[in-house]
């Protein structure tokens, strides 16, 4: 983890404009939102740097302010281990709340996929504050339940939908910030993700991912470039999800 001098660290209040674009943070009771920012500490990660690994002790609640964090895991025997990329988190996503609730070890790995700035709310300070203000556990629970809903949708898609529809849906979800933005109808045109990352997210081969993207390109729905996918027609891509 890169260590910055106090003078080099931005004031956490400077993160507010970004944090307030997130639906969960924008709807928090004002005293809880203010406490998170006041307790928070800026953290910097370089591309590829580990934030935490599966089995690590709880280290707090995080918000992505700049860059991106990949949540991933591995499974299988050591000589046949396979990787799975669950999600790529970009501003203004909050994460890490599971360990806040159960005080148990991290369930997955978190790495920076590019130079990244985070707001970290330390675990013990947050626990102490919530013990003194127990009415705000409900607000934190809403963050957890929102992730749970998304997980159920992903499980259903994996079981029921063919790969082309799942890939189109994932691109739409990423373009719309997984529904986390406050601004209705907001979307991004360029998604910073490689074909390899997409294949890991969707549990399909790199070759299948390439074939699906080529088909979407031929239909002028996307443009694929190295390390990114540009959305050319979001409405048509959304229609391709069904």
Please give a structural write-up.
The chain has 242 residues and is an alpha+beta fold. Helices cover 40% and strands 21% of the residues. It contains ten helices and eleven strands. The strands form three sheets. A four-stranded antiparallel beta sheet has the order 1-8-3-6. It has a four-stranded antiparallel beta sheet with strand order 2-7-4-5. Strands 9-11-10 form a three-stranded antiparallel beta sheet. A hairpin with a 2-residue loop joins strand 10 and strand 11. Helix 8 crosses helix 9 (206-218). It starts with 15 loop residues before the first helix and ends with a helix. The relative contact order is 0.14.
Q: Figure out the total of helices.
A: 10
Q: Total number of β-strand segments?
A: 11
**Into which percentage range does the β-strand content fall?**
15-25%
Largest sheet: 4 strands, antiparallel
The helical percent reads 40-55%
Categorize the overall geometry: globular
Q: What is the overall pLDDT average?
A: 91
What is the N-to-C succession of helices and strands? HHHEEEEEEHEEHHHEHHEEH
Overall SS class: alpha+beta
């Amino acid at each position: 983890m890169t260590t910055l001098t106090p003078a080099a660290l931005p004031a956490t209040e400077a993160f507010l404009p970004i944090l307030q674009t997130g639906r969960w943070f924008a709807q928090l009771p004002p005293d809880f939102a203010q406490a998170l920012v006041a307790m928070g500490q800026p953290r910097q990660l370089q591309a590829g740097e580990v934030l935490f690994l599966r089995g690590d002790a709880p280290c707090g609640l995080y918000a992505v302010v700049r860059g991106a964090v990949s949540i991933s895991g591995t499974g299988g025997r050591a000589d046949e281990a396979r990787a799975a990329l669950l999600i790529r988190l970009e501003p203004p996503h909050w994460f890490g709340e599971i360990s806040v609730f159960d005080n148990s070890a991290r369930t997955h790995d978190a790495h920076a996929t590019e130079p990244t700035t985070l707001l970290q709310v330390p675990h013990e300070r947050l626990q102490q504050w919530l013990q003194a203000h127990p009415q705000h556990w409900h607000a934190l629970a809403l963050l957890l339940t929102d992730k749970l809903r998304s997980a159920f949708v992903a499980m259903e898609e994996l079981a029921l939908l063919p790969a082309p529809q799942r890939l189109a849906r994932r691109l739409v979800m990423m373009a719309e910030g997984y529904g986390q933005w406050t601004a209705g109808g907001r979307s991004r045109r360029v998604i910073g993700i490689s074909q390899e990352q997409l294949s890991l997210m969707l549990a399909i081969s790199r070759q299948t991912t390439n074939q699906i993207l080529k088909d979407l390109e031929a239909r002028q729905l996307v443009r694929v470039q190295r390390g990114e996918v540009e959305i050319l027609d979001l409405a048509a891509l959304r229609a391709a999800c069904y």
